[in-house]
Design goal:
Layout: H1 7-10, H2 94-104, H3 113-120, H4 126-137, H5 164-173, H6 175-179, H7 193-202, H8 205-218, H9 234-249, H10 253-261, H11 277-280, H12 290-302, H13 306-328, H14 342-369, H15 373-386, H16 390-407, H17 410-424, H18 433-445, H19 449-462, H20 467-479, H21 483-496, H22 498-501, H23 504-517, H24 522-535, H25 543-547
Helix pairs in contact: 2-7, 2-9, 3-14, 5-24, 7-8, 8-9, 12-13, 12-14, 13-14, 14-15, 15-16, 16-17, 16-18, 17-18, 18-19, 19-20, 20-21, 21-23
Length: about 550
């Protein structure tokens, strides 16, 4: 038994993230899967949050163990290269919204029957198969399905959402100051997918959500339409994906759960092309975007029901593995036909192996939420054994290091850190950000805050705009009793790159440090609010919470 302290001693609990943090782009190589292993928190490295840290009277770094932040703060990305894009700061990975945006323009892509088949493939369950056979064999106009086999969604959220940042600015800065910030509403863009993409691109998420309501109402699935028969199309389901991704991003969990409930597990027959033979002729597969299917499977994990999410994810995994088995046997994904070429087969295997990995990453996150570290480790080890490049193996070794730190097994974490370092020698001759962060985490686990600070500082030298690293530097300084320097690190991160630095976790941390420093913090917080108005749109779920304004 390892008697050394576990990370659970140091860190308090916070929300556990969705698998989305692991999302690769659909269609990338399975080897590039893990974009961010964040093993133990909300979406993307949400860095440290000082929820209950108390200032110390001495100059030493004696901070109560129960007040220390969640380790997820320390988990940077573990993809092939450190991610230097905008930091993730919420429960949903920005990749989901990106995928939704891409899907909104899918109608403009050239027709490729093989690509369509592999993208849309899904195996219906036995009950759905019976209805689909009946739909296809019935004479035109004579098929009238029972209500029980229909998916009948509708909008629950009736009110139009206002720009949350603008409302806070009016309250705390006054109308004249808030007025300098432009407010974008749904009516300011075209009422179509192009307008929706523009709102998403510019970060006006509540306006985008309002526009999804308009577009979904136009396809007959608006307020009051729940439990009424309706026709589904790839476009209508893409709109639902966009809506759900935005609702998740701004944490509208309650209405999201109610609206998503009507779709179930997307296995009703009207979720398949075969249900509409007059419209889609011989086309097969699911109307449901894979990202929507995965988002809904993960959804219970966002509201504390990780066991339910695991059940849903394993159900998805069963279907995917059956499709991969069919592909490896030279058949189409659903097993009903023979593939025409090796290229088609290889492309399909590549896509669905990647999607299988995405689901496994989701299960890893749920396992961490349930503190089932053995299961999470088993999956990551399995992925490591299947990895086909040094970059992949190194990334997964780093992820395993951080997983076992989270579980409190420091010796095991050290083994995987050394393994990651050994593999790194075959990739680049000198340590990089990932390695310095791994070393810093090991130091934190041993209570060596000065050494951890040194390693995070080396990481910051390589990536000065890395918000996760800045947060960790600040935490180490706090532990060493250097509060003013901890504040200065976060202020510099914001001032040097406001677009990236004004992220939720960093704002919460900085405002907490302001409160530790002095009881007179209002002016500093309002300065941050002014910066948000200047540089940010409407992407932060709760501005009051971030700035700790009452």
């Amino acid at each position: 038994m390892d008697n050394k302290p576990s990370l659970s001693q140091y860190f308090g609990n916070t929300d556990v993230p969705p698998a989305s943090q692991f999302f690769d782009e659909i269609g990338t190589s399975p080897s590039d899967m893990i974009q961010s292993v964040y093993l133990g928190e909300s979406e993307g490295p949400q860095e440290l949050t000082f929820s209950s840290v108390l200032p110390t009277v001495s100059g030493s770094a004696s901070v109560p163990a129960t007040s220390l932040p969640d380790p997820s703060t320390f988990f940077d990305t573990i993809g092939p290269e450190p991610q230097i894009g905008a930091p993730k700061s919420n429960l949903v990975n920005p990749a989901i919204i990106t995928e939704a945006m891409d899907g909104l323009s899918i109608k403009n892509q050239p027709v490729d029957k093989e690509a369509d088949r592999r993208r849309d493939a899904w195996i219906p369950n036995d009950e759905a198969k019976k209805t689909l056979m009946k739909a296809q064999s019935s004479p035109k106009g004579s098929f009238f399905p029972e209500r029980e086999v229909l998916t009948m969604p509708g909008l629950v959220l009736e009110e139009e959402l206002a720009d949350a940042l603008h409302e806070v600015a009016v309250k705390y800065l006054g109308v004249s100051s808030a007025g300098s910030r432009g407010v974008v509403r749904a009516e300011h863009v075209s009422r179509d997918e192009a307008g929706l993409r523009e709102l998403l691109r510019t970060g006006y998420l509540r306006a985008a959500l309002n526009l999804t309501a308009v577009l979904i109402t136009a396809v007959g699935q608006g307020v009051g339409r729940m439990h009424r028969p309706t026709k589904h199309t790839p476009r209508s389901l893409q709109l639902w994906l966009t809506r759900f991704a935005v609702m998740l991003r701004i944490k509208l969990h309650e209405p999201l759960l109610k609206e998503a409930e009507q779709f179930g597990d997307f296995n009703k027959p009207d979720m398949f092309y075969q249900f509409y033979p007059d419209t889609y002729e011989n086309r097969t597969g699911s109307l449901v975007p894979f990202s929507l299917r995965l988002l809904i499977a993960e959804l219970p994990g966002h509201v504390g029901k990780s066991e339910e999410a695991v059940d849903r994810l394993y159900s998805m995994l069963d279907v995917i593995q059956q499709m991969l088995s069919n592909l490896r046997a030279g058949k189409t994904e659903d097993g009903t036909a023979t593939l025409s070429s090796d290229q088609d087969r290889n492309e399909s295997i590549r896509l669905w192996t990647g999607r299988e990995t995405r689901v496994l990453h989701s299960i890893v996150n749920c396992s961490i939420a349930l503190k089932d570290y053995r299961q999470a480790g088993k999956i990551l080890l399995s992925l490591q054994q299947q990895a086909t490049s040094s970059v992949q193996r190194r990334a997964l070794s780093s992820a395993l290091c951080r997983l076992w730190l989270l579980a409190g097994h420091i010796k095991a974490a050290q083994v995987f850190m050394e393994q990651a370092r050994e593999i790194r020698h075959h990739i680049c001759p000198t340590p990089d950000v990932r390695e310095y962060v791994d070393l810093g985490l090991i130091d934190i686990a041993h209570g060596r805050y000065q050494e951890a600070y040194t390693n995070f500082a080396r990481a910051a030298d390589q990536e000065p705009t890395n918000i996760m690293v800045a947060n960790n530097l600040s935490v180490c300084l706090l532990y060493m009793g250097r509060l003013k320097e901890a504040i200065a690190v976060l202020q510099k991160a914001i001032n040097s790159d406001p677009e990236r630095g004004l992220n939720e976790s960093l704002l919460i941390n900085l405002c907490t440090l302001y409160e530790l420093e002095s009881s007179k913090t209002n002016e500093k917080k309002l300065n941050l609010l002014n910066m948000l108005c200047k540089y940010k749109s409407d992407t932060i779920p709760n501005v009051l919470e971030c700035l700790k304004l009452s």
